[in-house]
Amino acid sequence: MLFLIPAYLSEDSPSEYFAPAVKEYILKTDYFFVENEKTARKVIKFFCPEKKQPDLKLFILDKYSENSDLKEAQNLMKAGQDFGLLSEAGLPCIADPGNIIVKWCHENDIQVVPVNGPSSIILALVSSGFNGQEFTFHGYLPIDKSQKSQKIKFLETQVQKTGYSQIFMETPYRNNQLFEDLLKSLSPNTRLCIAANINHPTDEFIKTLSIKDWQKNKPELHKIPAVFVLGK
After folding, report:
1. DSSP 54
2. Domain 120-231's class?
3. Separation between Cα atoms, residue 13 and residue 18, nearest integer Å
4. What are the φ and ψ backbone dihedral angles of 170, each rounded to 5 degrees?
5. pLDDT computed for residue 16 by the predictor
6. Does the pLDDT at position 139 exceed 90?
7. What is the tens place of the pLDDT at every residue in 81-90?
8. Tell me, which fold does domain 2-114 have in CATH?
9. Alpha helices (H) in 32-131, listed in sequence order
């Protein structure tokens, strides 16, 4: 089986935020697909401090991975070895690599077991006050300033035309720049939700304001994980 195991959104998240099944499935195997070995070991230690770290067999699966890079692990799975797919943050395969091994499991009759856990994208949406029936997630916006501005204006137009909520994110060290770009590109009455440090017990910040009100209430977002949502 392949267990799809969520990670915390904040290292300071209380353990009671998570279903007992997360620990249960981590204890079932020593074999994991991970995006970053150091992060994965911290997540496993968070949920299962009793698990012996030297016993872990970690296989890198990042945005550059192809099936040809995973042959050793795939052969082990065909032989009956259970694996976990561990996200960097939140749920695997949402704004996170990993879908290629899930697809491969379906093609090779290996059971896929999703484990309930947090998703910053969904938590931001449900906290925004925007349309949760119809929405689009865009991942990261372009780095080029001109292309980014065009994309921001396109997302605003989509909200106005369709009513669909538009969700996107940025690398934390570029959050402040993205926020300034949003202020410059969006109309004053357009509404923006910023959801930062989701699931942090004391520093969680979730607020929805119009752009004209954000101009007067600029948050400090540098190096803070954040999700941005435009909506009605």
Report:
1. G
2. alpha beta
3. 9
4. -150, 155
5. 85
6. yes
7. 999 999 989 9
8. Cobalt-precorrin-4 Transmethylase; domain 1 (3.40.1010)
9. 37-47, 71-78, 99-107, 120-128
